[in-house]
């Protein structure tokens, strides 16, 4: 697995360096920046600010009184870990941030193989890791973003879930909840897992001790999933500090407004493709996703990973507005790559690897590389 991971990083590094060489002056770097500078643009700069000075005690507001963009949209586990390493080693933020991301990504690849071996043959599990390593957004695994750390913690939680080791998940959940949003989706998946086990208890015994462990884990995970909202509210004196800060990022698209669950994707569909076409494509995408999970290929990866896929998809539908960063927000669905790894045809496997590498180039071009006024942040 580590050989696969290293080779995939060579590919992604070549692509990143190619775009860095062509990069013009922008808000973060001079022309043709070095790798460290290029790897810390976009959200990487927010993580640098948090690592250097922490969080503001008030939420900034715009000229018309709305909550503006600030560090409160970004959780502290990743930047504080990098800060601790800078204090320990004396090294700069950029190389340590990249190092943490790469090490977490390597750990995710190793855990993903062990996770998929619970449901897939050895060769298919290994190819799932290949697809993870070369996926279109895999350059994010080696830049100053918290995704690698979140995926590592998530993969550990899912591995414990399929092993039915519930309470040991909680230390991982505690860190995950302060790394990236998604703990609420995990709590929902754990709850669905418990319901499924209760439903099948006649064929698969579900002792009361395990019922209690599942319930405690689901409830504590849900509470941790909203903990950052409480921290932001306590520090700033505004109970809605986190949610309003997150909403500031969608304001350039649809303006300011409250968060109404399950409406953002409808609003986004109508904004991107008005006249009903966006809604039609949204429905097609949802139906296709459902078929993927419920079809014969989807059933091959087991119930628990499909429950996670359904829970996280519902979470995204409930709270996130679709835009260019949505591709990044889909990364936690990476266990579903096991479905794409099922066909054993060499043509299929070679073709999808090539398509994924081409996808890396396309994503870097449209979302990471800064080309003048760029409204497609990663």
Keywords:
378 residues; mainly alpha; 20 helices; 65% helix; globular
Structure write-up:
By secondary structure, the protein is mainly α. It has one domain. It is 65% helix and 0% strand. It has helices at residues 2-22, 35-38, 43-53, 77-89, 93-116, 122-134, 147-162, 169-176, 183-199, 208-225, 227-236, 241-248, 251-254, 264-272, 277-294, 296-299, 303-319, 326-329, 337-340, 346-368. The longest helix has 24 residues, at 93-116. The model has no long low-confidence stretch (mean pLDDT 96).
| Helical amount | 55-70%
Shape: globular
The gyration radius over C-alpha positions equals 21 Å
Q: Given the helix and strand composition, which structural class is it?
A: mainly alpha
Most strands sheet: none
- Write down the overall mean pLDDT: 96
Measure the end-to-end span.
27 Å
Strand share of the residues? under 5%
Number of domains: 1
SSE string: HHHHHHHHHHHHHHHHHHHH
Low-confidence runs (pLDDT<50, min 5 residues)?
Answer: none
Number of helical segments with 4 or more residues: 20
> What's the β-strand tally?
0
